[in-house]
Amino acid sequence: MGYTLRTLGAALWAYWHATSYKEGILKIVLSGGDADTNAAVAGAILGTKFGIDPIPEEWKSGLLYASMLHNKVQEFYAMYR
Prior knowledge:
This protein is mainly α. It has five helices and no strands. The chain has helices spanning 2-17, 21-30, 35-50, 57-61, 66-79. The mean pLDDT is 92. Keywords: Magnesium, Metal-binding. Mg(2+) binds at residues 34, 36-37.
């Protein structure tokens, strides 16, 4: 339970304080701890704040199945418009 609260706390901190998606993720990763888990949750939460466009292109293009993921995101987005 302790790690869950730390991860959520880190993600919410990024949401409240980051001025960009990239800044939020980098601050979470560089703060140490369980950086990959913290950044994954923060990334999801920051995505709701900033959207997909501010995510650096090199981060998106390096993803395995990037085009499939992009298409799925667009499908989900279309459901909620």
